[in-house]
Design a protein that fits this description.
Distance between the termini: 43 Å
Number of strands: 6
Shape: globular
Number of helices: 3
Order of helices and strands: HEEEEHEEH
Largest sheet: 6 strands, antiparallel
Strand content: 25-35%
Helix content: 25-40%
CATH topology: Yope Regulator, Chain: A
Structural class: alpha+beta
CATH architecture: 2-Layer Sandwich
Length: 129
């Protein structure tokens, strides 16, 4: 089983910067703005590793667009945070089988989305402002 310290090492090996660490909750807030990653939460939650990357608030008319993109994501999915209406990328992994390649594939899945759909995403997010 991967420990939170091993997850931290994997995060750093991926080239992600740890902007904040909450040791008592085993949470890391990571960034790599060149890859589109900002305020990504990596949470060692019991037997699970939960990754959440806030995308932003969007109009309900775009919910279907994100559901369609879910089908294209190799790993993870888009979800709606019902408390504040923010769309986020979410990936849940098992710590007992977690390895570097699995974590890397999850981060790369989001990076691939940004590379392929970034321009359209920016238009959607700007519409909300």
């Amino acid at each position: 089983m991967a420990t939170c310290e091993e997850v931290k090492k994997m995060i750093l090996d991926l080239g992600l910067e740890i902007k904040e660490e909450i040791p008592e909750e085993e949470i890391f807030i990571v960034e790599d703005e060149d890859r589109g990653i900002k305020n990504m939460v990596v949470d060692c939650e019991g037997e699970l590793l939960i990754i959440e990357q806030p995308i932003g608030k969007v109009s309900e008319k775009y919910y279907g667009w994100f559901l369609e993109r879910n089908r294209e994501l190799p790993f993870g999915a888009f979800a709606l945070d019902s408390q504040d209406g923010v769309i986020l990328f979410r990936q849940t992994l098992r710590l007992d089988t977690l390895d570097y390649e699995e974590l890397e594939a999850s981060v790369n899945s989001l990076e691939l989305f940004f590379a392929e759909w970034g321009e359209e995403l920016l238009k959607i997010l700007k519409e909300e402002k």
